[in-house]
Amino acid sequence: MQRVLARDPDNLNALADHVLVLRDLGRAAEADAAAVRLAQLDPHPPYGYFNAGRAALQAGRLEEARR
């Protein structure tokens, strides 16, 4: 992952995978930093709105979930 990101630091797929790998390795602080970078590059990730709606629905915020 580091080699890919060294060549193309803005590669969204590699960065997203890197976050997952770091979390699996228990390196939470590094994963959080990479996740922040990913969010800066892609503020509207696939399924982002869907996941936010599901979370709102589970929390009982029906109007927010509908939007």
Care to describe what's here?
This protein has five helices and no strands. The radius of gyration is 15 Å and the shape is elongated. The chain has helices at residues 2-7, 12-24, 28-41, 48-58, 62-66. It is 73% helix and 0% strand. The chain is mainly alpha-helical. The model has no long low-confidence stretch (mean pLDDT 93). The termini are far apart.
For the record, give the distance between the C-alpha atoms at the N and C termini, rounded to a whole number: 37 Å
Percentage of residues in DSSP E strands: under 5%
- Fraction of helical residues: over 70%
The number of helices is 5
**SSE topology string:** HHHHH
Structural class: mainly alpha
Largest sheet: none
- Tell me the number of strands: 0
The poorly predicted ranges are none
- On the 0 to 100 scale, the average pLDDT is 93
Outline? elongated
The Cα radius of gyration reads 15 Å
Summarize the structure.
This protein is mostly helical and 67 residues long.
